[in-house]
Design brief:
heterodimer, A: 315 residues, mainly alpha, MetI-like fold, 2 domains, 13 helices, 77% helix, globular, B: 316 residues, 65% helix
């Protein structure tokens, strides 16, 4: 999951930066097809239409069901006679999504903050200096992304159980247990992003500060950190989303009072099996509300990456 | 990637505090290094360790006193089919089938998507954002929608089938058909990943190459075969390897989309590990399945390393 998130950030940066440069350098050719058009026009249009419909089916289904009266959902009617908004209010009360949102934000946010601070500190020496252990640390961190989630969760759970049995410390259900777990899960990703980002900060700035007599640590605080803020924001948001989207860790390490929004949805799905009155429509409304912040953040991030990363690289 | 170096640092030797280039604050890596060792490396090693011990509901709190059982956890996990999610051998097969099929279907869709939005046209930025939507919707939501779409009789899939005159009682969420329902949702949500990587690769292709192909009289097929393919081959292999690894690690989709426990046809390895650990409370066996999972993860990684070496050898 983590490497999947990396690629969004990285691909977007390269892609948009390059495209913008090209657009500036090359006037548009009139009356002829662009040389970089790779499919015949009819095929382009057909494929775009096909893909758009393919994407739209589940998205529209989600939106329509979230606005439909319950009886229309149960009957499987795709076009209900009227649309209602009450499902959204119901999702808030029945699924208790409000508490889930706060839990997701608090735990995901703290973990992301710690992961970003720690990884920015580590990224500076890793990007600038050659020292013993640098390569194993960097490549080891990359390799750790290959460890499957259940294989991180399982031993952590065993350790948490031991803490309870031996030291009488309860971790499962506490905020910090999940925060610690999320840090473990997002640290490789944010390290990778931050090392890449610090490399884009021109070395001449370090040298200029050195000439002015700055120590290594003050170069980090006064030169690197201020310039790395855009990268840190991206790493923070991507780490936050890891927590927001996670079901595996939070379904095991939270209790009723600390559940995240994603687990609320998952559990709500399960209760459908037994309940007499199914609440599919509010469930869909809850889904919409969980998805909207993420989709909005990505759309915002897309632009942020262009402005922040591409701009910083040229300076 | 190369680890960076201070200019002339080697010539100056190790510059301590007060050297020409000042001190090197290597200690800044300490918090990250400590955290990585304490909360990732040691737990994962512990996970491998308990795969050889009988850690269950009774010995969980004091796992260090659990009896050593050798490879019994592995043989039991692999072969015994009594668990709610079947044997781990079954899990390995389902996982591989799922990952390979998903990658094989999603990759061409991603390539097609990238090809349609490479050149400038009115509405390009809209399509570029729209194509990302399945990928950015949280998987738990995608899984919930998938469950609704494949509901027996009333879901949109069954409604569409009945419009075409096929029986409406299909029970997509139970039995062997569940695999195909899961595969459909996985492909839907993950193809934009390939799209992103290929689009990034296409953006790096200089227009001169296409123009040269045009001057030589080449049209689309020539451009695709002789310009695009050589330029994006590396990224294409990378995207296939990474997406195979995502598919192998996908826990949320089978966990949320189906009943609890999910049908055998979707009991992939992450589900297998989860149920052994947190429902059956057989941590030794779950860890054994987890070790198996790491081994399965290493297959695509190994193929990638081999493929990139092969490419280096061919190009030199």
């Amino acid at each position: 999951m983590s490497s999947r998130l990396i690629e969004v950030g990285q691909a977007d940066v390269g892609e948009t930066a390059l495209l913008e440069n090209r657009a500036a350098a090359r006037p548009r050719r009139k009356g002829r097809q662009a040389a970089n058009q790779l499919l015949p026009t009819w095929m382009n249009r057909g494929a775009r239409l096909g893909l758009s419909v393919f994407i739209a089916i589940p998205v529209c289904y989600l939106l329509i069901l979230s606005l439909s009266p319950e009886d229309a959902v149960d009957a499987g009617r795709l076009f209900p006679s009227h649309l209602i908004l009450s499902n959204y209010a119901k999702a808030w009360t029945e699924v208790q999504l409000g508490r889930g949102f706060i839990d997701s934000a608090v735990m995901g946010g703290s973990a992301a903050l710690i992961a970003v601070l720690v990884s920015t500190a580590a990224a500076y020496p890793l990007a600038r200096y050659r020292f013993r252990g640098a390569a194993p640390l960097f490549y080891g961190t990359l390799g750790l992304q290959l460890v499957p989630g259940p294989m991180i969760l399982l031993p952590l759970f065993v350790i948490y159980s031991m803490l309870r049995a031996v030291l009488d410390v309860t971790v499962v259900g506490s905020y910090w247990g999940l925060i610690l777990t999320y840090i473990a899960f997002s640290l490789p990703l944010s390290m990778w992003l931050m090392v890449g980002y610090v490399r884009t900060i021109p070395r001449e700035l370090d040298d200029a500060a050195r000439v002015d007599g700055a120590s290594g640590a003050s170069i980090f605080w006064r030169v690197i950190v201020p310039l790395a803020v855009p990268g840190m924001v991206v790493a923070f948001v991507l780490s936050l989303l890891l927590g927001w989207n996670d079901v595996l860790f939070s379904s095991v390490l939270t209790t009723q009072t600390t559940r995240t929004a994603a687990v609320d949805i998952q559990l709500f799905t399960l209760t459908q099996n037994e309940e007499v009155v199914p609440l599919y429509a509010p469930l869909m409304a809850a889904g919409v509300m969980v998805a909207i912040p993420v989709v909005a953040v990505y759309m915002f991030l897309q632009r942020y990456l262009v402005g922040g990363l591409a701009g910083g690289a040229v300076k | 990637m190369q680890i960076g170096q201070v200019p002339h640092a080697r010539r100056l030797g190790r510059t301590g505090k007060g050297g020409i280039y000042g001190d090197r604050p290597i200690w800044l890596v300490a918090p990250a290094a400590v955290l990585i060792v304490v909360i990732i490396v040691l737990p994962v090693l512990l996970g491998v360790y308990i795969a050889f011990f009988n850690v269950n509901v009774y010995t969980l709190g004091k796992w260090f006193q659990a009896p050593f059982v050798g490879v019994k956890n592995f043989t039991y996990t692999l072969l015994n089919t009594n668990s709610a999610v079947g044997s781990a051998a079954h899990g390995v097969l389902v996982s591989i089938k799922f990952a390979v099929l998903s990658t094989l279907v999603a990759t061409p869709i991603g390539i097609l998507g990238a090809l349609t939005v490479n050149h400038r046209f009115a509405g390009r930025s809209f399509f570029r954002s729209w194509y990302l939507v399945p990928y950015v919707i949280p998987l738990v939501v995608t899984a919930t929608v998938g469950r609704m779409m494949f509901l027996n009789g009333t879901g949109i899939v069954d409604r569409a089938l009945s419009l075409m005159g096929v029986s409406a009682k299909t029970y997509w969420l139970l039995g062997p058909k569940a695999f195909w329902a899961m595969l459909a949702m996985e492909i839907w949500q993950v193809w934009p990943f390939t799209y992103l990587l290929i689009l990034a690769g296409l953006a790096a292709v200089r227009d001169e190459l296409y123009e040269a192909a045009e001057i030589d009289g080449g049209r689309y097929l020539v451009k695709l075969r002789y310009v695009v393919l050589p330029e994006v081959r590396g990224l294409l292999i990378l995207s296939m390897v990474l997406s195979t690894i995502f598919h192998l690690g996908n826990f949320t989709l089978p966990f949320v989309m189906f009943s609890n426990p999910p049908p055998l046809s979707v009991a992939v390895l992450p589900i297998d590990v989860y149920y052994r650990a947190f429902t059956a409370v057989q941590f030794g066996q779950a860890a054994a399945a987890g070790v198996l999972m790491i081994v399965v993860f290493l297959i695509p990684a190994y193929i990638y390393i081999r493929a990139s070496r092969l490419r280096e050898a061919l190009s030199s």
